[in-house]
Amino acid sequence: GFEYRDSGMCRLWMNLDVNGKVPTNINVTVGSDIAMGTGGADSTLMAFNDETGEQVAEIATAYMPPPEFAHLAVAFCRWLNDAYLIWESNGPGALFGPRVLDMGYGKIFWRTQEAGLVLKVTTVPGWHSSADQKMVLLGELRRAMTQREVHIRSKECLAECREYIYTASGRVEFARAVGDRKDEDYSSSKQNHGARVMGAALAWKA
Description:
Blueprint: E1 10-12, E2 28-33, E3 43-49, E4 55-61, H1 66-79, E5 84-87, H2 93-102, E6 110-115, E7 118-125, H3 131-146, H4 155-161, E8 164-166, E9 172-174, H5 184-187, H6 195-205
Parallel strand pairs: 2-5
Antiparallel strand pairs: 1-4, 2-3, 3-4, 6-7, 8-9
């Protein structure tokens, strides 16, 4: 269920029904970026309405290890009418995915590969990031936001969007992850900075 409190890690941008449940006519996709849970970067769950592109919910926490976060993710998706779940499988995502499978949650993204002119679904869950794929992923989110196809409600996510830059090498990176700062919050796990944006971009892809 959902309990309203100021200190909760979940934010909601939709009305629940009279029983405090998600309306049954809402179909949702959840995108997730995973961190190690040591406080240096957030793990996120970004939920969007499939029909309208509206963001309906968000979870962000920097203090939950990937296996534990997988339990939260599955519970969150089940609460959201068995939402479709996609996550970045690189790095900490390799610890997240097996736990999702262990819990028997089946509405998940499976990696695809091109074989000639045929697109084949593999037996590997989650989306695998590379520099080129990341550029395409974030570029598509930017296009969808510009065309009003996706509507992000989280002010933190919008702030993170403004911090993605093109580096001198032509890659797209989160600015604070490639700067000169050496403190723990900025130096740990570059791919997990801007985690709300990555979660939103993955949800839009799925």
